[in-house]
Each structure stands twice: as structure tokens, then as C-alpha cells.
Amino acid sequence: MTMAEMLALGMSKNEQPIETSWDVERVRADFPVLRQTVNGKPLVYLDNAASSQVPQVVIDRGSRYLQEEHSNIHRGVHYLSQRATSAYDGAREKVRRFINARESKECIFVRGCTEGINLVMHGYGRKFVGEGDEIIISEMEHHSNIVPWQMLCEEKGARLRVIPMDDAGELLLDEYDALLNERTKLVAVMHISNSLGTINPLKEIISRAHKMGVPVLIDGAQGAPHLKVDVQDLDCDFYIMSGHKMFAPTGSGVVYGKAEWLERMNPFMGGGDMIRTVTFEKTTYAGLPNKFEAGTPAIAAQIGLGAAIDYLEGLDREEAHRYEQELLRYATEKLSAIESVRLIGTAREKASVLAFVIEGVHPHDVGTILDYEGVAIRAGHHCAQPVMQHFKVPATSRASFAFYNTKEEVDIFVRAVEQVVEVLG
Ligand code: C6P
């Protein structure tokens, strides 16, 4: 059946099995953490939107640094420091290649997305946003892309404007157009929603802002692990990533920023390694990227991020994405067949996040009962309370899939949800 015929029959493309040649068993073998039992059951790890797992090659690279290279960077003339420096700066070049930034100095290492967005808030916001100015975010943002901008608005007397979404979890772009105006100083939106799975139409959002001369920040916490990111093609001004959602250790992350912005921004933190000269009268700052990397960074973690990028680049990422889409389709079909389950987030373009509520059952109870079965999901507001307010729920249960999950795992997950419905529903 062709896509046109399917659509004519009223079937959305998400309802059709997606053929893929992905060898999931080969990929699973790369992730040692998956080979364990929890409560006597094989671990079914479906909390990838919170933190994804780390392949053996990344673990090995981290241990090699600790065993053979551990040392501070950019400071020592000695052998170990030079090796550590070259591994750390090498990881930056891998990030550049991965997101197709023009220059590696446009990739600033941070501990994760939260720190990255705060860096832009302090560096860009406190310099370029003034009284009466406006910042546009969206209704589906994670708290880390709400609270920093709220703090800035309070400090500066600026105003936070919010692009609303509909009940499927899609942004209302006409409303966005109406919000953009000559007072807008920044648009800050997420690539993929961690609570709904929605993939936002970034190119559209960015080009509309640029027509008004407004820079755009993308919270890429959930985007970078699932989709190929080309910052030049997107033409975003900032793209922020968390390594622990990209198969790398916690404490790694990146702020991509266009050099023209980063050069003009204030440093985020003051201290060692971010200066050119210091006297008691005045400090002059180092060039990019050091200007934004005060103090000793998370060297082992960022080297691990470099290794995770090598790992990802060794996979067929398009096929991985198709496979994840098929897992999502399969899980959506199975879960929505259970009466009393309500899916939260039904956008046309979704990544592998499946949030739901069960009538009369608190999501925390769902999470706890699934844990007895060895199934790890997340229950709560997912640091997106405005999303919960929109859907009038206190919390949701959320399964989030990675390319190492299997349909058998989806079956175990769905069976466990059926048990919850039988016992508590
Ligand atoms: N979301 C989740 O379970 P940090 O914690 O700084 O690495 O990332 C923050 C963050 C920012 N934006 C989005 C879209 C995110 O999903 C997250 C982290 C986790 O959904 C923890 S709340």
C-alpha cells in the first residue's frame, strides 16, 4: 500500500509498521548495563529520556583517561597534561563535526543542558535584554528553559511570552507569529519535548525569528540523541546538549553558539583558564572557547562524550531513527489498546517518548509496580509542570526508547501496565 493510499484510508503514517534492517541484538551487546536482572527479572530500561546508557567503548575511554592520562589541561607542559589536553580538545573537534559547526571554538563544554542554558542567560541575556524587552519560549519547555529566562525577566523588567500548544502537543505557529515583535530579544524553544515527544518544526521557528532579526536558542537535550543535528543548516544561534542523554557520562554537555554571538557575550563564570591577563584593576578575557570554561572542567566526562560521538558516528543513524520510530509506533498501538490508558502527547511528528496516564491510578504507583517487573520508566511531572497543567494531570508515566530497546521489551512493558490496570484500575 502506498502512503497516499494509507492516508486515504484514514491511517496515519504512524500506524503502519516501518521496515528496518537495524540489528538490535548486535547494538545491545555494546551496553553492559543492559545485561542484568532487577527484582529477579531482566532489566527493561525505558528511561532513556532521563539518561541513556553508556556503551563499553565509552567506559573504556573514560578508564583509559583515568589510568593513563589523568591530569589537568591547558596548564602543564608535562607529558600527561599534554595528553589530557589533546584528548579534551580532540573531543571538542568531534562535537564540531557531529553537529557541523563551522569552528570547534563555537562548541563550549558545560556540565549539561541546564548549565548551558544558564550560560546563555547570563552571557547573552544579562547583556542584551533590557526593560520592556521580551523573550519567547513555549508552553512545552522543560523547567531549565523556563526558570533562567524568568529570573532574567525579573531582574531586567523584561517580559516572558509563551507560544501555546494544542491538545496533541503541537505548537501553534500562528500564535508564535503574533508574539514576535520588535521588542523580542530571544526565542528559546526545545527540539524534542521530553514530556510529550513532539518534534518541533525548528527550521520554521528559526526562520520566522530571523526575519525579525531575533536570535534563537534550541534546547537540544532530547534532539541530539535521536536526530541528526546540523547547526549550519538549521541556522540556530545556540544549540544546547546534555552528554548523559547521548550515551556519554553525566557531567558532559555542550553549548554550541555562533562565534559572532559568543564573541560579544559576557563570560558566564570568572576564574582560572578563562582569562588573558589579571590585575587588581582589570581582567581581560581569553578567546573562545576558554572565555566560557572557567576552572577545571569535567575532563573525563567530555572525553567520554567524544567517544560516544565516535560510537554514534559508527552506527547508521538514519536506520537507528527508523527503528526507534517503529518501536514508538508498536508501543503506541499496544498501549492505546488498553482501555483506561490515555496517551499524553499525540503530535504528528514524535520521537520515541510515550507518556500516559491510567484512569484512577497515580503515575508513581505505575512506576513502582513496573519496577517490580524490572521495567524502568519515569513517573512525575518531568520538570515540565506547565505541560501537566495544560493536560490537567498532576503527573504522567513515561516510557522513552533508545535504539537498543526491543519489541519484546515493549511487550513486557505493556503486560506490566495491563497488570497495573487489573490490580489498581
Ligand atoms: N530531562 C528527563 O527525564 P540536564 O538535567 O541539565 O542534563 O538536562 C535538562 C533538560 C533540559 N531540557 C530537556 C528537554 C530535558 O529533557 C532535560 C532533562 C530529564 O526528561 C531530566 S528532568
Describe the structure.
This protein has a seven-stranded mixed sheet with strand order 4-10-9-8-7-5-6, with helices on both faces. Strands 13-14-17-16 form a four-stranded antiparallel sheet, covered by helices on one side. The protein is α/β, with parallel strands linked by helices and 425 residues long. The chain has 15 helices and 17 strands. The protein starts with a helix and ends with a helix. It has two domains: 3-46 and 316-424, Aspartate Aminotransferase, domain 1; 58-313, Type I PLP-dependent aspartate aminotransferase-like (Major domain) (Aspartate Aminotransferase, domain 2, 3-Layer(aba) Sandwich). Helices cover 40% and strands 16% of the residues. Ligand C6P binds at residues 49-50, 112-114, 142, 144, 190, 194, 219, 221-222, 242, 378, 382-383.
Count of distinct structural domains: 2
Low-confidence stretches: 1-13
| Full CATH superfamily name of the largest domain | Type I PLP-dependent aspartate aminotransferase-like (Major domain)
- The fraction of residues in strands falls at 15-25%
The CATH architecture of the largest domain comes to 3-Layer(aba) Sandwich
Describe the SSE topology.
Blueprint: H1 3-8, H2 24-28, E1 37-38, E2 41-42, E3 44-45, H3 56-69, H4 79-99, E4 107-109, H5 113-128, E5 134-138, H6 147-156, E6 159-163, H7 173-179, E7 184-190, H8 202-211, E8 216-219, H9 231-234, E9 238-242, E10 253-257, H10 259-264, E11 275-278, E12 283-285, H11 299-313, H12 317-336, E13 341-344, E14 353-358, H13 363-372, E15 375-376, E16 378-380, H14 385-391, E17 396-400, H15 407-424
Parallel strand pairs: 3-15, 5-6, 5-7, 7-8, 8-9
Antiparallel strand pairs: 1-2, 4-10, 9-10, 11-12, 13-14, 14-17, 16-17
Bound molecules: ligand C6P.
Ligand C6P binds next to helix 5.
